[in-house]
Amino acid sequence: ETVPEPPLRSHPIPVYMSGPGVMWTHRPARLVETPQVDLPATVTLDEIEDDVQEIDLISDAAVHVEEGKGGVCWRAIDANDKVYSERFPIEVPRDSYSYRQEMIGLFYALKRALTRFPALEVIRCHCDNQAGIYKAQRPTYGPEEVTGSDMDVILAIRELVKSQEDKDITFYHVRGHTDEKLQPGEEASRIEVQNVECDRGAEECKDERPIPFQPLPGSKCMIRVANKWVTTRVDTAIQDITSTARIRLYLLERLQITEWELDDIDTEALGAARSVHNWSRTARTSKML
Fold first, then answer.
1. pLDDT at 222
2. Who has the most CB within 10 Å: 26, 140, 164, 232?
3. Who has greater pLDDT, 240 or 188?
């Protein structure tokens, strides 16, 4: 069954054309409007006045892929260091990873902050996901930008920011896990302190029951070719689902590192450097790495 136009909140799914008019997919296609459900958020601190006009917004996620559990915590601080904090559990599919969940957390944090404090004029968003922060604030420049992996989350953030043109919303990277990284004599900044608290809050709520994933405003068809809607790059999506999560788990166990240390590795630069090597040299460097 087909529809003339896909619903605005239809979620991009990886598909493979196995014959005329036949589609095969890893996930069930849902061509109906999905009602939005309020997040089961818990307010843990509420010190900021309702008419505040400027805040720093910090968010973080705790993701346990093997357990299928995760949590998000976000905190807003005003000029007087008064804090508003919320946390909520999130659904973590087995083919997911921390990058996506952190960006979903940032999207909901910004959305809920705009609702909670309607008088806001300046919002500085901070997250320890450096790659996600970079993507969230750069403009859309081509098809690759809108059909890449996890771009539904990035586009949802961009769309939310665009809808608030009367507000000054900016994004900044904050060093994560400073409670484990500080050198002797070094002090954490006020934003880094709040980021550590977000990490703790996210961990505390990960065992609560989350609501099922809700399609985001960026979850819609991105490009139309020959009267056919293209929602994602099939090869990238299949690779992510079939191998990315497993490779990440192998590296975490093999190298005895944490997820944030793995995310700090510039894999795109490594891939670009190795792309000019022949097969034998690539095999040697893989063993060395």
1. 47
2. 232
3. 188
